[in-house]
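Posted in: Structural Biology > Protein-Ligand Complexes

Title: Requesting predicted complex, L263DTV3 in pocket

I'd be grateful if someone could produce the 3D structure tokens for the following input. Sequence and ligand are given below.
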Amino acid sequence: MTSPFTSLSPPAIDAIAGGKPLALFLDFDGTLVELAATPDGIEVESGLFDRLHALFDRLDGKLALISGRALDNLEMHLGSMRIWRAGSHGSDCRDPAGAAMGSAAQALPPAAIAELMAYADRAGIDYEAKQHGGALHFRAHPDAEGGALAFAETLSAEHGLAVKAGKAVVEVVRPGADKGTAVRAFMARPEFAGACPVFIGDDVTDEDGFAAAQELGGHAIIVGTRGDTRAEYRLPGVKEVHEWLNL
Ligand SMILES: O=P(O)(O)OC[C@H]1O[C@H](O[C@H]2O[C@H](CO)[C@@H](O)[C@H](O)[C@H]2O)[C@H](O)[C@@H](O)[C@@H]1O
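-- Reply #1 --
Done. Output follows.
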């Protein structure tokens, strides 16, 4: 960790890349849209889709969304995109035309899905079915956090899976991918050659993206109040992210 409690505002978007072309990697929930009580309860500002595509054009195509959501879910909320994107915490990377990059992401084993659903039922918490994972949401039941985390750890160990913990959520996924592997995959493409990567995100899973951007000579911007971060810069919330991006 370089700066666990940074409060430093980032330089302006036109200056942060220090004269290089800028490559932007954007998280979705808590960064581009405000968090909501449930995954489908988010409100996507009208015009966000068009403004993101205008930003993609302004950056000569060096813009990617990197979300924990599965891409089908992201597109259900945002629309059918023509920008670089990674869903399922970096497992499913696509180019602007929608072509898959790398090996295809896999769904969880059916037995693991069944156990997650049964646990959610027993614990009275929400289960989010995802293309390449399964998530236990406890925003409405904060007291269920410890049990859900312990259950996810045990289940993952039994099935050779991995756990991603986030804001009021714990998710079971296939091992091997994270938001950092997605940043590296995009930055390895000729379209991103010579660019300075900047990752903006709010959650723990964004730290892998922060690390990759910094290791590739770029920067990380954390959104909100989360303290323990390796980001050098901070923006207070979604509104300030939009302002910083000139969206
Ligand atoms: O990486 P992100 O794009 O930030 O996605 C992370 C997770 O976002 C969603 O869950 C979070 O947002 C919900 C809506 O605001 C909120 O109800 C929940 O408590 C948050 O954890 C999404 O449902 C997950 O699948 C994503 O992994």
